[in-house]
Amino acid sequence: MEFKLHSSFKPTGDQPEAIEKLTKNINLGVKHQTLLGITGSGKTFTLANVIQKTQKPVLILSPNKTLAAQLFNEFKTFFPNNETKFFISFYDYYQPEAYLPSTDTYISKDSKINKYIEELRHDAVTSLLNKNDVIVVASVSAIYDVGSPENFNKASFTVNIGDKFTRTQLAKNLVTIHFTLKNLNFSDSGFFRYRENIVEVFLPNGLEIIEIEIEKNKIKSINKKYNNLQNQGQDFLKIKNKTDFKKQELKSFTFFPVKLFITDKEKLDLSILNIKKELKERLSVLKKQEKHTEYFRLKTRTNRDIEMLQSTGYCEGIENYSRHLSFKQQGDPPFTLLDYYRFRFGNDFLLFIDESHIAIPQIQGMYNGNYVRKSTLVEYGFRLPSAIDNRPLKFSEFEKISPQTIFVSATPKEYEKSKSQNNIVEQLIRPTGILDPKIVIRPCTNQIPDLIKQIEKQIKNKDKTLVLTLTKASAEDLSTFLQNKNIKTKYLHSDIKPLERPKIINDLRSGKIDVLIGINLLREGLDLPEVSLIAILDADKEGFLRNKTSLLQSIGRVARNTEGTAILYADNITDSIKETINETDRRRQYQREYNKKNNIKAKTIKKSIDKNYSEEENFNKKHSKEMLTYLERELQKAIQNWDFEKAAKLRDQIKEIN
Predict the structure, then answer these.
(1) Which of 239, 347, 408, 644 is 20 to 30 Å from 525 at the Cα level?
(2) Given pLDDT bands bounded at 50, 70 and 90, which one contains residue 498?
(3) Per residue, what are the HEC states of 478-497?
(4) Going by DSSP bridges, is the β-strand pair 424-427/32-37 parallel, antiparallel, or unpaired?
(5) What is the DSSP string of 446-460?
């Protein structure tokens, strides 16, 4: 299917010129370009038009999960009939395996996997292998090892109407790729059950049911049932209203493995032999070094994993053996989501890096932190040396396998500029005619009392406010302080679970709260037309959060409202503040002249408030029992550790679920 853009809008302002330049350069084979677009200029719409014109599959990398969720919603709206998918880290909570030699403390891997996100990841991967019109919106976790696309694809099998199959044969094939037989009412995905002569297979993506009717040891019919609302947490097995589902007759269907890390039996046996060989070599080294504790630790742990692999084809931490399972050499780059694109499309796809001034440094630094942690585990006998190759890509490896790339940012850094050279496409006009926000400087002295006065004015005008602090603690404290003043306030920072963040943002937009306080997450690309004021506390504290790039990005949060104003609380006018004011004045002048020339009157953006998969209240019902068990366990831990503040929060969360 071709990419078909659905929108009631047409490109305006400098969007048509940007679309033309970007598309022309792609067709000419230009490797790197930068779309320098100010907040509210419609960069996402520009990129959507580029996708439609080039008709190439696209991977979109975002620096954080909140932005990724927003981008996914936007591209899904633009391309409702195409394969628009979502791929972020599936952990609600993640404590990586680590060892601290100074205190002889081993920290086992502890994580809480979000089943719904896991299903979305699987859906993205399988779409890449059997569809052409694919757009995957991903966080930078896409550069981590996800297993071999060749092994994953090879393990799949296809059924056709008329094929000879008994129920037992079909079940055996499904179990081989880690489907589970369940005849009870489980609300899970990645399993199958029998219904007389029909085998119902509940796919790992959590969205579809495949019904295979077998008669006289032949496949008589294949039907796909799917929820038009993309499931949204509904229990598969409690569906009684047939109108909730559409049914489609198929001639054939391909089943892909439930797990991304998989290999066939023959290769698995060879992989295990290689693991045993490496174990023997490593144990010999540890014995010579007279590291007896490390020797027995490694021997016990690895043999336990080998036993699990031999009996089930899977073990906890299987990703640490990915080098052997993928038959790669020491130091070879891991298989990532990019390799799934390359496996399917070669280099004939596009990469968009959103907010590249943040995403590129993230990608550059991810390998080193992982290497230090894994090296310590290897040195002290917790893992084999090959575990080091379960890692994110090095930046040089990422550059080597990247296809034609468009960096997207309002404030691109030197890396993007040097790579793009003369191919930097500016987009400084907002289709709405809104100018860059006005900047007001106020002293830090008594900044909180002044802030409260400004917020009260905002509430009176039914407008929303963003506040930026320097630390998580100050964001939380200020939120509590404002709540005690009867101001409806919430905070948003990295400790908030990824799938709660869009809900908090929607609460602000819908009027459930009037003020949102944050640190860093509020800077990047959030689309909040209801917000007309952003207050930046301690704006003169030079540093990462108060440099020119950060200030421009922060101020841009109110660039979707005609009354957009940024108050910078500062006792000193720093170089960063000066540069921010100068650049903002330059843009305002350019925009004012364009509006005058084209007789444009500025108007605030009107955007519907979506209720979608990212709102936990929509899909958490599916896993509420599982979540309740987890929270109760964490509550007991907190009480045992005398952490009563944490225990109180967990108690409140348990009450909310009940």
Answers:
(1) 347
(2) low
(3) HHHHHHHCCCCEEEECCCCC
(4) parallel
(5) THHHHHHHHHHHHHH
One-letter identity of residue 254 = T
pLDDT single digits (tens) 181-199: 876 555 568 889 888 889 9
Helix axes 43-54, 65-78, angle to 10 degrees: 50
The Cα-based distances of 149 to 257, 343, 387, 458, 506 in angstroms read 11, 7, 19, 52, 37
Q: What is the DSSP letter of 319?
A: G
At 119, the amino acid letter reads E
Q: Helix, strand, or coil here: 17?
A: helix
Distance CA 358, CA 330 (A): 30
* CA terminus-to-terminus distance, the chain: 45
SS3 64: coil
Given a contact cutoff of 8 angstroms between Cβ atoms, the answer to whether 92 and 170 are in contact is no
What pLDDT, on the 0 to 100 scale, is given for residue 245? Answer: 66
pLDDT per position as a tens digit, 303-345: 999 999 988 888 888 888 988 988 889 889 999 999 999 999 9
C-alpha 3: how far from its chain's center? 23
Identify which has the larger pLDDT, 64 or 573: 573
Q: Show the beta-strand stretches assigned E in 505-606.
A: 515-518, 531-536, 565-569
- The answer to whether 145 and 335 are in contact (CB under 8 A) is yes
pLDDT digits (tens, 9 = 90+) for 417-465: 999 999 999 999 988 899 999 999 999 999 999 999 999 999 999 999 9
Looking at residue 230, its pLDDT comes to 44
Residue 66 binned pLDDT confidence (cut-offs 50, 70, 90): confident
Tokens 């298989």: give the residue: 335
What's the rounded mean pLDDT across residues 8-23? 93
Buried b (16+ CB within 10 A) or exposed e, 297-332: bbbebbeebbeebeeebebeebbbbbbbbbebeeee
Alpha helix stretches (DSSP H) within 313-394: 322-325, 337-345, 356-379
265-288 vs 292-312: helix crossing angle, rounded to 10: 170
Instruction: Please state, in angstroms and rounded to a whole number, the distance separating the CA atoms of residues 504 and 651.
Output: 20
- 568 contact partners, CB below 8 Å, separation of at least 6: 439, 440, 441, 442, 536, 539, 540, 551, 577
DSSP β-ladder status, 105-107 and 98-100: antiparallel
Among 110-114, 244-248, 336-340, 442-446, name the one with the lowest average pLDDT.
110-114
Q: Which residue has the tokens 């100074």?
A: 102
Determine the Cα angle at 39 with ends 35 and 44, to 5°.
55
Nearest-CA neighbor of 324 among 271, 369, 361?
Answer: 271
- What's this model's pTM, rounded to 2 decimal places? 0.75
487-524 burial, b at 16+ Cβ within 10 Å, e below that, comes to bebbbbbeebebbbbbbbbbbbbeeebbbbbbbbbbbb
Mean of per-residue pLDDT scores for the chain? 86
Interstrand relation of 157-160 and 180-181 (parallel, antiparallel or unpaired)? unpaired
Length in residues, the chain? 658
Closest-CA residue to 222 (of 192, 246, 249, 255): 249
pLDDT score for 113: 61
CA-based torsion, 476, 477, 478, 480: positive or negative: positive
Q: Which of 541, 139, 146, 551 is nearest to 362 (CA)?
A: 139
